[in-house]
Design a protein that fits this description.
The structure holds three protein chains of three kinds. By secondary structure, chain A is mainly beta. Chain A is built from one helix and eleven strands, in the order E-E-H-E-E-E-E-E-E-E-E-E. In chain B, strands 6-5-7 form a three-stranded mixed sheet. The longest helix of chain B has 14 residues. Classes of the chains: A mainly beta, B mainly alpha, C mainly beta. Strand 9 of chain A pairs antiparallel with strand 6 of chain C. Chain C: It comes from Chenggangzhangella methanolivorans.
C-alpha cells in the first residue's frame, strides 16, 4: 500500500457510511520488499545463521495505531554463565529496516520493553546474540488498523 | 480501546500524558517572564486547592454569564497576571496546565455544576450533539449513541466521553484538548469545525459532561 | 531540557534485579514526514540511550526513526553497589540529557 494521498474514503458497515480516514503519520513511506531487511539482519549477525526459538517477542497482533506498538522481548532459560549480548529488532516495511538495537550484558536481565512505529501491517523479526556466539530469532505478524476521524 | 493502550494509560511511567502534567506542575509554580505572580502565589498547593475542580467543569462564569471550560478558566486567570504572555488554545503551556489541574481530579466522579443558569446551555449542547452535520450528514449521536461499540475503518467507536482530557493520543503523537478531539470528529464527517474556544464547543462539552457523569476523571488518559 | 520520567527502586538487595523504567519527551521526527508546507521535515531523533551504573554501561539502546515519539524503555539490571545510576539520552541536533538516580544496595 502506498500513502500518496493523505485522504481516502472508506465504507463502514453495510455501505451506510463513508468517512474520511487517513493513514497514521508513520505510514508516509512503505517499503515494498524485504531486501533491505535481509541485508540489515545479515549485517547484524555477520552472516551467521539465526536459529528460530529461545527469544520470545511479545507484540499485540492487532495494533490500534501504527505510531506506537508496545514491544516486549525476553530470552528465558539461558544456561549458567550465558548472557545476551545484543538484541536487534528489524521491520519489513518501515522506511528503514532497523527498529531498535539493544546492548545487554552479564549484569542485565534479558528482558526489555519499548514502543515502536509500524508504517503498515508487517512482520517483525527479533534476533538475540548470546555470549556463546549463537544467534536466535523470533518473528511476529502485526496488523495495523487505520485511525478514524483524524486531523485532515 | 485495546489492552495495551489501557496499560499505557494505567502506568504513570508509561503514560506520556504524565510528562505534560509534569510540565504543568513546573508552570504552576513558575513566575511569568514579567516576574509577576505564579499560579501557586494565589492558589497555593494545587494538590489541595485544585482537587476535584476539573470534575465540575465547565462551570457557570459570573463575569460572562455563560459556561466556561477549564481551559478558558485557566486562560482568564493567566490573563489577569500582569506581564504574563497570552496562552493560546492548544498551546503546549495551556494543555500542560490543564493536564496538571485535571490530574488533581483523577479518580473523582464527574460532577456537573448544578447551577440552573447552565440548563439552557446544556440543552443547546444536546441539540448540537443530535444535529446531523457535514457532508456525511451524521450527528454525534449517530455514532456515539447509536453505533457505540461498533467499528469505523478499524477504529472502535467509543461512547464519546470527555473525562480523560486533555490526553495523549497516539495518532497525534502528542497531547490535545477535548476541543481538538471534537474537531477531529467534525472533520471526520466533513463538517466545518468552529474555532477553538467557540461557544458551540463549550456547550457541547457541557452536555458531554452531564452525559458522562458519574464516570471518574481519567486525566491524562491515553487514546489510539 | 526535555521532561523525563524515571522509575527505579531507591533501595535494593545485592544481587537482585532492579527494574528501571524510563520515559522522555521527544518528537522523534522520522525524517520521512512532510510538514504543513509539503517539504520533508528533517530528522530529529534520540539515537542512543545508555545506563551507567557501578563503573560500567550496563544497558544501551540504539534508537532509529522506528522508535515511537516520547521513547519508553524498560530494562532490568542487577543491584551490585550503592551509588548513582546515570541515564543518558543522546540524539540529533546536539540533544543530550542525563538523569541520575541514587541507588542504595543493602
Amino acid at each position: 500500500m502506498t500513502a500518496v494521498s493523505r485522504r481516502s474514503a472508506l465504507g463502514i458497515g453495510a455501505g451506510a457510511l463513508a468517512l474520511v480516514t487517513v493513514k497514521p503519520a508513520a505510514a508516509q513511506f512503505v517499503r515494498k520488499d524485504g531486501a533491505a531487511t535481509l541485508e540489515a539482519i545479515r549485517a547484524f549477525t555477520g552472516g551467521k545463521e539465526a536459529a528460530p526459538g529461545k527469544i520470545v517477542m511479545d507484540i499485540p497482533p492487532l495494533v490500534e495505531n501504527g505510531n506506537s506498538a508496545p514491544l516486549k522481548l525476553d530470552v528465558p532459560g539461558l544456561g549458567d554463565g550465558v548472557f545476551v549480548r545484543r538484541i536487534g529488532v528489524f521491520n519489513e516495511k518501515n522506511p528503514l529496516p532497523e527498529t531498535v538495537t539493544l546492548h545487554l550484558g552479564p549484569r542485565t536481565a534479558p528482558r526489555v520493553q519499548t514502543r515502536i512505529r509500524l508504517a503498515d501491517s508487517q512482520t517483525i523479526t527479533a534476533i538475540a546474540e548470546l555470549s556463546d556466539g549463537t544467534f536466535h530469532s523470533a518473528t511476529a505478524d502485526v496488523i495495523v488498523t487505520l485511525a478514524a476521524c483524524v486531523e485532515g | 480501546m485495546s489492552a495495551s493502550t489501557q496499560a499505557m494509560q494505567r502506568d504513570d511511567v508509561q503514560n506520556p500524558g504524565m510528562l505534560a502534567a509534569g510540565q504543568g506542575e513546573a508552570l504552576w509554580n513558575a513566575q511569568p517572564p514579567g516576574g509577576g505572580q505564579s499560579c501557586a502565589s494565589c492558589h497555593g498547593d494545587a494538590t489541595a486547592s485544585m482537587k476535584g475542580v476539573a470534575a465540575r467543569y465547565p462551570a457557570f462564569d459570573e463575569a460572562t454569564r455563560r459556561p466556561i471550560d477549564l481551559q478558558d478558566r485557566i486562560r482568564a486567570c493567566n490573563a489577569r497576571r500582569p506581564g504574563a504572555p497570552d496562552m493560546p488554545h492548544e498551546s503546549e503551556e495551556l494543555v500542560a496546565l490543564s493536564a496538571y489541574v485535571g490530574l488533581q481530579s483523577r479518580g473523582t466522579p464527574t460532577a456537573p455544576d448544578p447551577d440552573p443558569r447552565l440548563a439552557p446551555f446544556r440543552a443547546r449542547g444536546q441539540a448540537l450533539f443530535e444535529r446531523p452535520i457535514g457532508q456525511l450528514n451524521l450527528s454525534c449521536a449517530a455514532c456515539h449513541d447509536a453505533r457505540a461499540g461498533g467499528r469505523l475503518a478499524g477504529a472502535l467507536i467509543p461512547q464519546g466521553h470527555p473525562n480523560g482530557y486533555p490526553l495523549y493520543r497516539l495518532e497525534w503523537q502528542g497531547m490535545g484538548s477535548l476541543q481538538r478531539r471534537l474537531r477531529n470528529c467534525m472533520t471526520g464527517v466533513r463538517a466545518e469545525a468552529p474555532p477553538f474556544g467557540a461557544p458551540d464547543f463549550v456547550e457541547l462539552e457541557l452536555y458531554l459532561q452531564s452525559r458522562a457523569a458519574p464516570l471518574a476523571v481519567e486525566t491524562p488518559a491515553v487514546r489510539p | 531540557m526535555a521532561r523525563a520520567l524515571v522509575n527505579a527502586p531507591k533501595t535494593a538487595k545485592a544481587g537482585e534485579m532492579m527494574e528501571i523504567k524510563t520515559l522522555i519527551s521527544h518528537v522523534m521526527e522520522t525524517g520521512f514526514r512532510p510538514g504543513m508546507d509539503g517539504r520533508i521535515k528533517p530528522r530529529d531523533i534520540i539515537t542512543e540511550f545508555a545506563c551507567e551504573y557501578d563503573g560500567e554501561v550496563v544497558f544501551r539502546a540504539a534508537l532509529h526513526p522506528a522508535t515511537s515519539a516520547n521513547p519508553y524503555l524498560a530494562f532490568e539490571t542487577r543491584a551490585t553497589r550503592s551509588g548513582p545510576m546515570k541515564l543518558t539520552w543522546r540524539g540529533d541536533n546536539g540533544f543530550e540529557q542525563t538523569e541520575t538516580v541514587d541507588i542504595t544496595v543493602e
